[in-house]
Here is the input.
Amino acid sequence: MSTIHANSATSASPETLPEENSSVWSIFDAMPAWGMSLLVHIGIIIVVAMISLPEIVLPEFNLTSTVEMEEIAQVEYVLDTEPSESLGTKSDLNIASPSAAVAQNRGLDNHREEIQQIESSVVNPKIQLNETVSTPSEAEMLENIDLTGTTEHAGGTDGAVDRITLEIANSLRQRKTLPVWLMDESISLESRREKIIERFENVYRQLGLMDDIDTKDALKTGIVGYGKDVHVLLDEPSSDIAELSKAIKTIKSDTSGVENVFAGINQAMKVYGPVRKKMRANMILIIVTDERGDDFGENYTVLEEVVKRLSRDGVRVFCIGNTSPFGRQKGFVHVKWKGEDGTDYEDDIGDADQGPESPLPEGLQLPFWTADSQGLERMSSGYGPYTLSRLCAETGGIFFVADDTSRKQWDPQIMRQYAPDYRPGAEYRRQLQGNLAKQSLIAAAQLAVTEPVPIPQRTFQANNDNILREQITEAQKPLAVLDYFLERVHTALEAGEKHRDKLDSDRWRASYDLAMGRVLAMRVRAFGYNAVLAEMKSNPKRFEKADSNQWKLEPSEAIDAGANVRRMHDKALEYLHRVINEHPGTPWEFLATMELNEPLGWEWKEGHIEIAAMNGGDGRRGPQFAPEEEARRRQAQEMQRKKEASKPKI
Here is the structure.
């Protein structure tokens, strides 16, 4: 029966379900699809809200905890320093070995004594104060300053000798020292040799009074004279001041005009080199001269051999000399001499080989047409000649400037970034091949050295048109030569113009820009000069003043030689202004400013000049003077002739 009931219950029809259930399902059946979708989405939103709600509603709990540091009790170890009477296996000490016991006992005893000393020092500190602080000497202060390989303006010959004294003193503090003085025997060096003799005794007395060194055996000096020949004035180096001074006084002036300085160096090394090895001393060569030397060899081969030898042997070279003229080989030296008749003469002789400051001339030497160029041939480069400067630089020495005859001085701090290239001559030539602008500048500079540059006539006598035309014709002749020269120089510089921006130093850029600017400016002046002369020759101007008898060309802003010349004019100004703006305080800026002091065009100005009586009664042509004045003039001319004839070679 139970089975029948179960079957009857499960087989009941839907009509027998409760009434409320059927009504709920009927509602879902009647609901459209969008309604069902709405209900489903609402349900999903409610479920999501229930998941995130506790994180929003429930408060945030922050748990913090602190850890109390456990105080560590300081353990004091008390060690018995009493030595044990028994050692080894019979000892009562519980130790590993007898040697360990001995080591511990000795160490503990020293440790306790050290603690007592520290405590006593802290309680009663004793601070030792120095009442006086000694001032270091000038040599000690300069000892750690690296000045080697530089050109230094030490303040004339006296200042240079003082600096040499410091260098010798510094060397003596290291080891024994053997300085060797190489004296140029030229007549132009007489006054400098006398100054050195005057200071020689004082110099070596100062070196002998060095408190910390016994210089009697530590300092020996050699002396060599050189000119056309080399003379070893001391066969053995000496520490006797009187003997040293006497040796220098025996130098006789060499009038050959040859200075074989590198032969002198080689002879000094041959004579004094073995003595140096025997002494185990530093060796210093001190060259006293006013020129670069004549025996440096083709392409500086002899110079390089000497540099290698001295560098290998650790011999430093110092030089007391003159600055090189800016971009030139020839410079001036002041000389006093006696004529054949005993007359005393003195003059500045401009035939001294003092430059250039670089391996090859890098500056374009052009005259100035309008500016006052007096003294420019003496303008200093601020550096010594390349040969001796390289020798000093490579051996760790210094070139000391004893005489800088230029009226215009340059700030050494500014000129430092324009230092010449002191690399070997062969390497210098190789780096020229890497830049066409450098090659073109050297080629143009060489043209200016080998060929004279004429300065055109600017004043013309004009008593009548025929005289004026004759003078203009004569003035135009050298202009043709000048124009040919300037065209070749300009062409040489133009070949490297595209590589100008690849120049790798301020010195090269300043030199190239100045050369291009000046040659363009001179070409503009030459074209304008030729144009105004041609116009005056074909159609002479008339004077406005009755007493005028002279025409003079003066600088003018007017450029009347055509469009091509005006383009040259603008380009010249561009280059010259670049030099002025980018290289202030340098020789290049100074020369560019001089070039632009006057405009590049020309105009005629009339004037008057007194004309002396011509064709005197005796038939002689030229100005006639009073007998007394004529005698004075002839006497002065004769004196000048004798002076020129007796001028010594330097």
